[in-house]
């Protein structure tokens, strides 16, 4: 499978290898291995899904406080409908399991899904292996929104806990709107222009973030720590917002998996095959940005997930978006839950999650860069 | 390699944000602009302290420069006469200068120097970590009081310009007293410095007399938080950790990493703190205080049940200057209200 990535990386047109079956283009010879391929992929998906659920349960059992396995599962099962277990544990133990760890694990999974699916979508849309949710300024916009949210004098007591995520999400969405508008050339949005506009706007916003930081006085730590990303204070109310948005947004993107496959052949060819390329860009850009915003607004900026996961999935299961998207979602959730376990348990104090994902992501990123033999554009 | 540029930019961003983290932690601990409430000024005692050897010029003296391990090595400097034009690069140094009665000789300080009131109207030579060397040169200082944060870049630059930079880098309560004595020697106001130190020592000893004898069972489990998202406490090598012990508490961060380790909510719950002290600037502005008071998941910790979630003026605990004693007394009152009425 490594050859697949290599051929894709060194492909002069920059398009990823897509088999004809993935694009739905009729072929004379349907290979007999097709059904086998499908079956093996679906089995892998089933294994990953059960693995994810097991990992989530396992992640809830570990933390800085030692809680016996039986107690943890007792608390978890007790939460399920129709199951009643006599409480043999203290209230604070129940709080730790069901109010602190469980929402944290679920939110880590949700953010993993969001960043990976958004990353895969951006990469497919831009036909650019290095695209991720942050290339077009989404993260920088969210950071500026959060920074402004921190420095705005709090009008109502208690409001400060909700204003930052709202501002961060708005910052992300407004940024993409600006980038999209700037990149428009007539009726079309050329991908190169979009990326360039995104990078330029992103740099501009980072400069503004730095400026806000310099004038923020004692709010500085809030902004800086937000930018490093953390699941420390994850709570159910955040899961209740992020989970539906991310699941709905990812499902919406999945509806366009075949179009994403076709667009890999190049925009002109995709148009000839009946794909409304500009509409596709608008819809998928919006959806991917929405799920990114929902994720980062609560936990801050977590880098590299959006780049590593889709590429890792491509290496293993190929570049067909009908599989790439669900596999990315599953692997992303598993990756981020695992990274969060590491961040919670590796040292006497928690390590910012962004550091762990970057430590895993940077070498892969470099490997990717070493493999590139062609200039992309 | 257009994409390569983007890639390296991204790496830079990561690096920058890590740098920001370090800076922010240092900043968080030392510069935060002061609050409106003034600390109690140290009143000089009337009894003269033991006299040190008299200062004669030229005076050769070592400053408080530390090596990479944090051991004080000191850089030797020579003063031909008592400094008349002092520039302070840190709020703590500014407060030391005023405590020594040298306010009229202070010609420059930073935008964060806001105590005492008179410090606000002094010419500013930049922020805390961002020093504008040109402004310093223009002020023709004969003494520049730098701090730990300047050791890496600012101090070497000032030395290369042949400017009289003197590092003050206290990290413990005793260090603060020694620093005041040292600055007093350099500026030739030893008697005044001895007075200040004696007054501070008397107040420290008054606290110690009641707290040092406390058996472990009577020490209050105290959690000190400098931030809530993520919750950050004070590691065993920090000054605030020392203050908790001196004030008759026992810090729940014992055995945790040095510096300012992050503590998850579950660790906070299982640490079972009887008192939580946040550092802040007063009431509504203190997000960490608001958070700990209102977070439903922390409702069962003893500190919440007994209504013992407090804040202490961060300028008293973060600035290694004369007001650390105010910080010690404030914390002692919060941790042991029954002993300090």
From TrEMBL, chain A:
Primary location recorded for the protein, binned into one broad class: membrane
Alphabetic keyword roster: Cell membrane, Membrane, Transmembrane, Transmembrane helix, Transport
Biological-process GO terms, alphabetical: siderophore-iron import into cell
GO molecular function, one term: transmembrane transporter activity
Keyword ATP-binding attributed: no
Top-level taxonomic group: Bacteria
InterPro entries listed in its UniProt record: ABC_BtuC-like, ABC_transptr_permease_BtuC
A single GO cellular-component term on record: plasma membrane
Topology of the protein relative to the lipid bilayer: Multi-pass membrane protein
Similarity annotation: Belongs to the binding-protein-dependent transport system permease family. FecCD subfamily.
Protein name: Iron chelate uptake ABC transporter family permease subunit
Annotated organism of origin: Dehalogenimonas sp. 4OHTPN
Lineage: Bacteria, Bacillati, Chloroflexota, Dehalococcoidia, Dehalococcoidales
TrEMBL record, chain B:
Pfam families with a match to the protein in the record: Peripla_BP_2
Segments traversing the membrane: none
GO BP terms in the entry: cellular response to iron ion
Signal as UniProt keyword: yes
Matches recorded under PANTHER family: MOLYBDATE-BINDING PROTEIN MOLA, VITAMIN B12-BINDING PROTEIN
Family: Belongs to the bacterial solute-binding protein 8 family.
Protein known as: Cobalamin-binding protein
Organism: Dehalogenimonas sp. 4OHTPN
Native organism taxonomy: Bacteria, Bacillati, Chloroflexota, Dehalococcoidia, Dehalococcoidales
């Amino acid at each position: 499978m490594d050859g697949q990535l290599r051929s894709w990386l060194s492909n002069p047109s920059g398009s990823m290898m897509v088999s004809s079956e993935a694009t739905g283009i009729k072929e004379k010879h349907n290979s007999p291995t097709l059904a086998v391929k499908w079956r093996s992929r679906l089995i892998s998906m089933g294994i990953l899904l059960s693995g994810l659920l097991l990992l989530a349960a396992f992640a809830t059992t570990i933390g800085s406080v030692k809680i016996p396995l039986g107690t943890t599962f007792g608390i978890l099962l007790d939460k399920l409908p129709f199951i009643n277990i006599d409480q043999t544990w203290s209230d604070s133990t129940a709080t730790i399991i069901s109010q602190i760890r469980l929402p944290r694990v679920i939110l880590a999974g949700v953010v993993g899904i969001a960043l990976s699916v958004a990353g895969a979508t951006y990469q497919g849309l831009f036909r650019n292996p290095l695209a991720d949710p942050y290339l077009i300024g989404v993260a920088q916009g969210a950071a500026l929104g959060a920074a402004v949210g921190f420095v705005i004098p709090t009008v109502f007591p208690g409001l400060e806990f909700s204003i930052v995520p709202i501002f961060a999400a708005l910052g992300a969405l407004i940024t993409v709107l600006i980038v999209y508008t700037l990149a428009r050339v007539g009726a079309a949005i050329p991908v190169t222009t979009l990326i360039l506009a995104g990078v330029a706007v992103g740099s501009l916003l980072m400069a503004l973030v730095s400026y806000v930081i310099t004038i923020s006085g004692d709010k500085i730590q809030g902004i800086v720590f937000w930018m490093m990303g953390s699941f420390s204070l994850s709570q159910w109310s955040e899961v209740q917002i992020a989970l539906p948005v991310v699941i709905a947004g990812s499902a919406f993107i999945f509806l366009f998996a075949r179009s994403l496959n076709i667009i890999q052949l190049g925009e002109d060819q995709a148009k000839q095959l009946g794909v409304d390329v500009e509409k596709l860009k608008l819809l998928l850009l919006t959806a991917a940005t929405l799920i990114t915003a929902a994720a980062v607004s609560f936990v801050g900026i977590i880098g590299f997930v959006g780049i590593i996961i889709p590429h890792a999935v491509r290496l293993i299961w190929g570049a067909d978006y009908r599989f790439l998207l669900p596999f990315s979602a599953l692997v992303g959730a598993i990756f981020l839950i695992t990274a969060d376990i590491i961040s919670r348990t590796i040292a006497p104090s928690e390590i910012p999650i962004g550091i762990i994902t970057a430590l895993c992501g940077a070498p892969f990123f470099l490997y990717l860069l070493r493999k590139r033999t062609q200039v992309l554009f | 390699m257009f994409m390569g540029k983007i890639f390296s930019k991204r790496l830079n961003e990561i690096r920058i944000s890590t740098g920001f983290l370090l800076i922010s932690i240092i900043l968080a601990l030392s510069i935060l602009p002061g609050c409106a409430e003034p600390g109690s000024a140290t009143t000089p005692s009337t009894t003269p302290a033991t006299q040190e050897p008299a200062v004669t010029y030229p005076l050769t003296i070592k400053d408080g420069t530390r090596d990479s391990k944090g051991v004080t090595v000191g850089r030797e400097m020579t003063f031909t006469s008592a400094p008349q034009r002092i520039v302070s690069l840190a709020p703590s140094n500014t407060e030391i200068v005023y405590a020594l009665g040298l306010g009229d000789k202070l010609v420059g300080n930073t935008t964060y120097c806001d105590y005492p009131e008179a410090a606000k109207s002094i010419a500013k030579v930049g922020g805390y970590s961002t020093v504008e060397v040109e402004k310093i040169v223009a002020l023709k200082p004969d003494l520049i009081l730098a701090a730990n944060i300047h050791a890496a870049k600012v101090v070497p630059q000032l030395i290369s310009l042949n400017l009289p930079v003197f590092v003050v880098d206290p990290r413990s309560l005793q260090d603060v007293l020694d620093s005041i004595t040292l600055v007093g020697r350099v500026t030739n106001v030893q008697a005044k410095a001895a007075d200040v130190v004696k007054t501070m020592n008397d107040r420290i000893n008054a606290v110690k007399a009641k707290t040092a004898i406390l058996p472990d069972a009577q020490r209050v489990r105290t959690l000190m938080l400098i931030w809530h998202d993520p919750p950050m406490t004070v590691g065993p090598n920090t000054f605030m950790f020392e203050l908790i012990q001196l004030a008759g508490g026992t810090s729940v961060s014992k055995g945790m990493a040095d510096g300012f380790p992050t503590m998850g909510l579950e660790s906070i719950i299982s640490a079972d703190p009887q008192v939580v002290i946040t550092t802040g600037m007063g009431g509504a502005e203190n997000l960490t205080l608001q958070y700990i008071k209102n977070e439903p998941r922390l409702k069962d910790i003893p500190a919440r049940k007994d209504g013992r979630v407090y804040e202490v003026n961060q300028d008293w605990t973060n600035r290694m200057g004369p007001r650390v004693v105010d910080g010690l007394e404030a914390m002692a009152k919060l941790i042991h209200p029954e002993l300090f009425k």
